[in-house]
Write a structure and sequence with these properties.
The complex is a heterodimer of chains A (150) and B (151).
Chain A: H1 2-43, H2 48-55, H3 66-79, H4 83-102, H5 121-136
Helix pairs in contact in A: 1-3, 1-5, 3-4, 4-5
Chain B: H1 6-35, H2 40-47, H3 55-71, H4 75-93, E1 107-109, E2 116-119, H5 122-137
Antiparallel strand pairs in B: 1-2
Helix pairs in contact in B: 1-3, 1-5, 3-4, 4-5
Classes of the chains: A mainly alpha (150), B mainly alpha (151).
């Protein structure tokens, strides 16, 4: 009888762990895949980052760091290869985006153009979910490379 | 007795908090828009031949689900409600049915309107998938901890 009880408890733990790992995979793949599409836009000539850098008198060439922070980093996160480091890089990137593009412009105090929802909810999702991945790690559905940094 | 280091569980619970407060707090704004007369949801309901009053179901899911996630009270239930609401929203408004545009394979323009910038449905995907993630993850320890297995 006791064996059955222990087995059931372990089964419940395993199910709970699997659900958590599914959620971690959902979050890390969502945030990374969506930020990758933005990087693809930058590579193909989207000017927003360059415009922001010029506005702050920073070298426009810094825009290419997007390839690292929102190109390589999300691939690490998707694959589960040093995912926490990748997520930390994405978090840093989005913090910089808020500091350079969304605070002094007042975006953080505005509603979306449609009047429904916060103006920067998209960027904030990128920031917060990247930070959540950093805190939670990749879970087991990935390549699992990087030890505690995954 | 637990084999899981306390530091790890603290970080994981903090991650759960960040996730559910983010999605919960921002969806509350969309719920409030229903309350203040935004025509978006009623218009789509009417386009589908449904009563506009069903918007209150949307309000319940968005506002109630959002509050549940933020507080950590029946957070899984809130995540499930918002997740299914977003599934319905995407089907009813974004895949080309009943006079809606099909946004599934579209990109959106940047604020300047001079270059494509991101996936058209990125915000909707964030809401839907993050909410289902909250359902799977639960609230963690940083919250009101109300709702038993539904939290």
């Amino acid at each position: 009888m006791s064996t059955t009880t222990i087995g059931t408890a372990h089964g419940a733990d395993a199910i709970a762990a699997t659900r958590e790992d599914i959620a971690k995979a959902i979050v890390r793949i969502t945030v990374s895949a969506l930020i990758l599409l933005h990087t693809w836009a930058v590579i193909n000539g989207e000017q927003a980052i360059r415009d922001t850098l010029m506005r702050w008198d920073l070298p426009v060439g810094l825009a290419w760091t997007a390839v690292i922070f929102e190109g390589i980093a999300p691939i690490m996160v998707i694959l589960g290869v040093y995912a926490r480091i990748g997520a930390a890089m994405m978090t840093f990137w989005m913090v910089m985006a808020f500091l350079l593009a969304h605070i002094d412009t007042g975006h953080i105090f505005q509603l979306a153009q449609s009047g429904v929802g916060w103006r920067v909810e998209g960027p904030f999702f990128f920031l917060a979910l990247s930070f959540a991945v950093f805190l939670q790690g990749a879970g087991r559905f990935g390549l699992n490379i990087g030890g505690k940094w995954n | 007795m637990s084999a899981v280091p306390a530091q790890k569980t603290n970080a994981e619970d903090l991650g759960k908090l960040v996730l559910r407060v983010t999605v919960g707090s921002m969806i509350i704004f969309h719920g409030l828009a229903v309350l203040t007369g935004d025509p978006g949801i009623p218009a789509r309901l009417v386009a589908w031949g449904l009563p506009a009053e069903l918007k209150w179901l949307g309000f319940l899911a968005e506002f109630g689900g959002g509050v549940a996630m933020v507080l950590g009270a029946y957070a899984r239930l809130g995540g499930l409600a918002v997740g299914f609401f977003m599934v319905a929203a995407i089907i009813m408004s974004h895949i080309g049915l009943m006079n809606s545009q099909n946004h599934l394979f579209m990109v959106a323009m940047n604020p300047g309107g001079n270059h494509w910038d991101h996936y058209f449905l990125d915000t909707q995907m964030f809401y839907m998938l993050s909410s289902f993630a909250v359902y799977f993850l639960g609230a963690g320890k940083y919250g009101l901890n109300i709702g038993g297995k539904w939290n």
